[in-house]
User: Fold HAD family hydrolase from Sulfobacillus harzensis.
Amino acid sequence: MLQRYKRPLLIWDIDGTLLEPLGVGRQALNQAFHALYGISGGFDGLDFAGATDHHLWLQAADSARIPPEEASNFFAVYVRHLRQQLSRTPLQPLAGVASLIADLSMRGWPLRLGTGNIRLGAYAKLNAAGLAPYFPGGGFSEAGSTRADILQRAADSHLDRPVIVIGDTPRDVDAAHTAGFFCFGIATGRFDVAALQAAAADAVLESLAEPTPFFDQVWQFGQEKARE
Assistant:
């Protein structure tokens, strides 16, 4: 039976999906690590694609034999360095993203974040890129130990409708499916269309430079799920 159509909740990754991945987060993490512990390059060599800030912290802290309980102090210093970095190297939305997000918001699509960034770090980046007002909340690194936990937190109070996660890595796809959600892969990060298809994304787009393919996909997907 056809149910009353509800627009899907769209949960967005940040780095490589909404914003150009310029490495400012890694730089700020390394700067904070050096400022506190005198260790250079503490986060070098770690895989940031689809990772969470807390998971990265645990890896760096373990390698340097720093108590994991230092996390709160570390992230406070990290945010200060991140804001300094952003004042020197402003982040830019990827091609088409600013107009697409503004259009989605204007049309009443519910938008949330689902990111491995800590909350303050996420909004520092989005503020720098002019996108923060469109995202009233979401799931962040503090929400849980896994990306799936983060996405489930982002979807709280919106489980009466389909949930689509938009991300650029196979980890985003896996986390979305683990959480019971759908995932659209956007090949604007390290992973190309073939890699995201191989990860079993429910739809894959090369980019968001042209909004029409994205609108067509989410609208069709939402209609199909309303009929199930």
